Amino acid sequence: MLHFSCDICGKDLQEGSRSRFVVKMEAYAANDSAELVDGDLDDDQIEEMARLLNEQEENGDDLEPAPAAKKMRFDMCSYCYRKFTADPLGRESLKFDFSQN
After folding, report:
1. Which pairs count as long-range contacts for 28-34, CB under 8 Å and 24+ apart, including other chains?
2. Which residues pair with 74 in a beta bridge?
3. What's CA 2's distance to the chain center, in Å?
4. pLDDT tens for residues 46-76?
5. Residue 57 DSSP one-character state
6. Which of 12, 38, 55, 80 is most enclosed, with most CB atoms within 10 A?
């Protein structure tokens, strides 16, 4: 028998139970198709690439590219699932509640 627990709160979940939810997400780079114009063909591509690499090295940026795509899977209890679906990006947790002094 497989053991499941909520990936947010850690609560034990039973296999096949209606209180266990699975959330699958996929993140990938957007591929906006851009049209080529005559000015793009006039640019020296090798010189531009060298400039970008030098700029990255000067800034200390990591030269490894970000992964093209990432798939994620989370098991959640019913409480955490409802909370997640109500605010999937966690925007509410970023709001500050300042007192009226």
Report:
1. 28/68, 28/69, 28/70, 29/66, 29/68, 29/69
2. 23
3. 28
4. 888 888 888 888 877 665 666 788 999 999 9
5. H
6. 80
